[in-house]
Each structure stands twice: as structure tokens, then as C-alpha cells.
């Protein structure tokens, strides 16, 4: 049975200084949850937290050190985590390398969320029915990735190729969580739709297209993009395994996200690259 409120639950929402993450944080707080607002822009992150009576923890997911610091803050400040929304994301028009030596899109969209989820495993385990929600994209179906070369060091950079691969990694991450913790934790990825937000602000062409009259008709507001998060958070956990939410509709996972060997290999490589807990 679906829940009608989030009363008493503790939620952590990343990428919540604006866009889908900020809208989700507002909606979750309105439904009774205590929300920790995580975002790269410190001022906007604090503004959202102040607005909803939540806690602000500014964090740049392009730096593993800041992700580890975020985890330590959470471990020391909250008794448990009921819902972790891995929503921080980026799409870079050009290859950029993070201070940790990884391609920016893959680190922000997958490696850092993987690290954070791993570091918070015990806090999640202290919740009665912990839930991990990964913001994905229906484009994961077109993703291709080699776990031994997540940064595509030997290939020419292509914006959408990197983005699709990172979103496939996020879907595989959720699927592998369900395989590894069948009785204690639930994870699901979802597609918010094409949203008018600042997440792809570095792409001049995409930003201009979304701002056009036609673009506004074909895209969704951040509030609409956040709707799947609320739907998932209030759905019975037993209905969330092995599905992908395409907006508000659960559908079976599609290849290549159905490959358990690929998911296991990706998990092992991400663990090694992030030095996350075993």
C-alpha cells in the first residue's frame, strides 16, 4: 500500500540547490520528512534548506574529498537515513578531468553517488525500510560502458556518449544494490523527463533550445521532474525492485541494464576507484 505522507522520515537529497532536487526537497518537507539539502552552490543550498526548515550541507561531487566530508557530517548528525536521493548530476560539452583524475560527467553522475551510498550504508541500514533513488534517464538504454575504462581515456570525448554511459551506470548501481541487499534495502532509478533546469547550463545549445517557445512546450518544470521521486518514495518497497520509473510509470529494466555480470563488474571497479567500504 502506498504511503500518504513521509512523516518522521529522514531524507537526503543531493543536487538540491536548484531544479529537480530543490523541488523534491520542498515536496518531501511538505509531506513531513526531515530533509538534508545537499548542493554544490552553497548560497542556494542554504536558501532551500532555510525555506523548508532543513539542514544544508554544500558539497561538490566533482571532489571525492567533499563527498567523504558530507558522509561524515551525516553519520555524526542524523540517527538514520530513510531515503537517499542521488540526484546530483552534470553533462559537460567538453572533456573535463576532476581533481581525482576522472572524467567529470562519470564522476559526478555515478562514481560520487556510488561512494556516498557506500559510505552511508550503515546509516541506511538503521532505517526500517531504507530506499535509494538514483536520478537517471531513459537514455540509459543507449549507454555503453567498459567498467575497466569508465573515463574513456583512450577514446574521443562525446558529450551524450559520456552522459548515457553515466546514466546506465546509475541504473546498474540500483539493480546491484537490490541483488546484494535483497532483504534490507531497496533501490530504484527513474527518468524525470526533459526538465528546464540548470543541470546542463554549460551546454549553450541545449540551454537555448529549452528556453525557446517550442522547448518550453516540450519540456517539464522542475516541479514536474520531481514528481517521480515523490511517487517512488510513497510506493510500497516491494513494487520497486527490478523496475525503472519512466516518469511516473514503472517498466521492466531493459538491456544493457539487465546484465548482472556487467553490474557486478561495474560495482567492483567503482569500489576500487573510489576506495569505498567493502
Task: Explain the overall architecture.
By secondary structure, the chain is an alpha/beta fold. It contains ten helices and eight strands. An eight-stranded mixed beta sheet has the order 3-2-1-4-5-6-7-8, sandwiched between helices. Strand 2, helix 2 and strand 3 form a beta-alpha-beta unit. The longest helix has 22 residues, at 159-180. The protein is globular, with a radius of gyration of 17 Å. It starts with 9 loop residues before the first strand and ends with a helix. Mean pLDDT is 92; it is low at 205-217.
Concise account of the structure shown:
44% of the residues lie in helices and 13% in strands. The chain has helices spanning 19-30, 42-52, 64-77, 104-119, 121-125, 159-180, 204-211, 213-218, 222-233, 260-274, and strands at 10-13, 34-39, 55-58, 83-86, 131-135, 186-191, 243-246, 249-252.
| Overall number of strands | 8
Helix share of residues? 40-55%
Q: Tell me the Rg in angstroms.
A: 17 Å
Task: Report, as a whole number of angstroms, the end-to-end distance.
Answer: 34 Å
Arithmetic mean of pLDDT: 92
Structural class assignment: alpha/beta
Biggest sheet layout = 8 strands, mixed
User: Any idea what the shape is?
Assistant: globular
Q: Order of strands side by side in the largest beta sheet?
A: 3-2-1-4-5-6-7-8
Note the run of SSEs as H and E. Answer: EHEHEHEHHEHEHHHEEH
Stretches with pLDDT under 50, minimum 5 residues: 205-217
Tally of DSSP helical segments: 10
| Strand-residue proportion | 5-15%
Amino acid at each position: 500500500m502506498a504511503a500518504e505522507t513521509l512523516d518522521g522520515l529522514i531524507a537526503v537529497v543531493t543536487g538540491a540547490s536548484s531544479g529537480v532536487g530543490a523541488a523534491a526537497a520542498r515536496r518531501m518537507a511538505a509531506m513531513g520528512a526531515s530533509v538534508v539539502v545537499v548542493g554544490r552552490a552553497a548560497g542556494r543550498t542554504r536558501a532551500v534548506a532555510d525555506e523548508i526548515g532543513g539542514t544544508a550541507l554544500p558539497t561538490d561531487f566533482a571532489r571525492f574529498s567533499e563527498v567523504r566530508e558530507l558522509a561524515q557530517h551525516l553519520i555524526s548528525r542524523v540517527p538514520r537515513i530513510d531515503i537517499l536521493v542521488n540526484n546530483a548530476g552534470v553533462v559537460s560539452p567538453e572533456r573535463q578531468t576532476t581533481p581525482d583524475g576522472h572524467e567529470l560527467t562519470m564522476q559526478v553522475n555515478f562514481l560520487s553517488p556510488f561512494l556516498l551510498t557506500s559510505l552511508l550504508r550503515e546509516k541506511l541500514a538503521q532505517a526500517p525500510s531504507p530506499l535509494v533513488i538514483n536520478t537517471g534517464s531513459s537514455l540509459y538504454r543507449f549507454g555503453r560502458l567498459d567498467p575497466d575504462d569508465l573515463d574513456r581515456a583512450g577514446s574521443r570525448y562525446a558529450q551524450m556518449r559520456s552522459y548515457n554511459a553515466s546514466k546506465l551506470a546509475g541504473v546498474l548501481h540500483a539493480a546491484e544494490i537490490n541483488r546484494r541487499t535483497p532483504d534490507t534495502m531497496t533501490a530504484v532509478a527513474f527518468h524525470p523527463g526533459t526538465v528546464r533546469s540548470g543541470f546542463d547550463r554549460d551546454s549553450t545549445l541545449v540551454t537555448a533550445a529549452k528556453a525557446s517557445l517550442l522547448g518550453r512546450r516540450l519540456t517539464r518544470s522542475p516541479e514536474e521532474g520531481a514528481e517521480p521521486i515523490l511517487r517512488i518514495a510513497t510506493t510500497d518497497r516491494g513494487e520497486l525492485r527490478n523496475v525503472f520509473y519512466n516518469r511516473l510509470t514503472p517498466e521492466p529494466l531493459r538491456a544493457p541494464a539487465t546484465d548482472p555480470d556487467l553490474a557486478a563488474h561495474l560495482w567492483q571497479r567503482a569500489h576500487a576507484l573510489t576506495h569505498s567500504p567493502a
